[in-house]
Design a protein that fits this description.
Order of helices and strands: HHHHH
Largest sheet: none
Radius of gyration: 18 Å
Mean pLDDT: 90
Structural class: mainly alpha
Oligomer: single chain
Helix content: over 70%
Distance between the termini: 45 Å
Number of strands: 0
């Protein structure tokens, strides 16, 4: 992997995060929302846009060019779920879309919960 691929990953991931920060700042300053509400709405906007771009085939093109820069932010998770749903829509709503989409999500959510439990336990034990 050459240095330019790393640069593309950095730039694309940074641009996704910059977009999120811009949305968050607009929500805070222009709409006078509190920080938690602004963060939540910003995440919803990024997830919806990533899902929409996946459905239109735009996010896959970005991912082919940028690699990990497009899958690290939360938009990559939205892309994965939307791609799974699109690929399995021919099998039906329940047996196709919901089952296959949440196979991926289940593994990620379980990993997050287990990691949070382990790290939380370590911090609890270190603080006494």
């Amino acid at each position: 992997m050459d240095i330019m691929q790393y640069v593309k990953c950095f730039i694309v991931g940074g641009l996704i995060c910059l977009f999120g920060e811009l949305v968050r700042t607009i929500l805070l300053k222009r709409f006078y929302l509190d920080e938690q509400t602004s963060n939540t709405i910003m995440l919803i906007i990024i997830i919806v846009l990533a899902s929409l771009f996946t459905g239109l085939g735009i996010y896959d093109k970005i991912g082919q060019s940028a690699g990990a820069g497009s899958i690290i932010p939360i938009s990559g998770f939205a892309n994965s779920l939307t791609s799974s749903a699109i690929e399995s829509k021919s099998e039906g709503i329940i047996t196709g879309i919901l089952t296959n989409m949440f196979k991926l999500a289940g593994a990620i959510i379980a990993t997050g919960i287990i990691s949070a439990f382990i790290i939380g336990t370590i911090i609890y034990l270190l603080r006494g």
